[in-house]
Specification:
The protein is an alpha/beta fold. It contains four helices and six strands. About 5% of the residues have low confidence.
Length: about 160
C-alpha cells in the first residue's frame, strides 16, 4: 500500500511538473524572432535578403565584429550582428534620445568589459532597442531594470 502511494505521488508530481513547464510563459526578456541565415558577407556586397526586424537580430553579417563598449558613431548593422553572433548584446538608440539618457546608457555599458555594445542608430523605430541573437526589445523610455535584465539574460 505504501509503495503504491509513493508511485502515485511521484507520478502526480511528474505530471504537475510537465504541466507547469508547458503552461508557464517564458521569463526571458524581449521578443523571440525567427533566426535568419548566419552567413558572412563582405563589406560592399549586396544583402542576399531583407532583415526581419529593426534593428536586425540575426542574418547576414561581416566576419569582423566591433569592439565591445560605447561607440559614439553609427556603425553598419552587419558589424553589430557579428557581435550578436559572438553572444553579445547590442544596445542602440535613436539620436533623438535626450543626452542625459544617452549618458545613462553609456554608464550601464561601461560596467561591462565584454559582451555589450552601445551605438546610435538613425534607423531605429523606437528610441531604445535591445538586441541579442534572435531576441529583440524596443521602447521609447528609459528603463534601467529592463535593460539590465536583458543584458543578464543574453550576455
Amino acid at each position: 500500500m505504501k509503495k503504491k502511494f509513493i508511485i502515485l505521488a511521484v507520478l502526480f508530481l511528474l505530471a504537475f511538473g510537465v504541466f507547469w513547464f508547458i503552461k508557464t510563459p517564458s521569463e526571458k526578456p524581449g521578443e523571440a524572432v525567427p533566426i535568419q541565415p548566419n552567413e558572412v558577407i563582405k563589406p560592399g556586397d549586396p544583402l542576399p535578403g531583407i532583415y526581419l526586424t529593426n534593428p536586425p537580430v540575426s542574418g547576414w553579417h561581416y566576419a569582423d565584429k566591433t569592439s565591445w563598449g560605447v561607440h559614439d558613431e553609427e556603425l553598419p548593422d552587419q558589424i553589430l550582428i557579428a557581435n550578436l553572433v559572438d553572444g553579445g548584446v547590442w544596445i542602440s538608440y535613436h539620436p533623438d534620445l535626450p543626452p542625459e539618457i544617452i549618458d545613462s546608457l553609456k554608464k550601464i555599458v561601461s560596467e561591462y568589459k565584454t559582451g555589450v555594445v552601445l551605438t546610435p542608430r538613425t534607423n531605429n523605430d523606437k528610441l531604445i532597442s535591445l538586441a541579442a541573437w534572435g531576441r529583440l526589445d524596443k521602447f521609447d523610455y528609459y528603463d534601467e531594470a529592463r535593460i539590465l535584465k536583458f543584458i543578464k539574460a543574453y550576455r
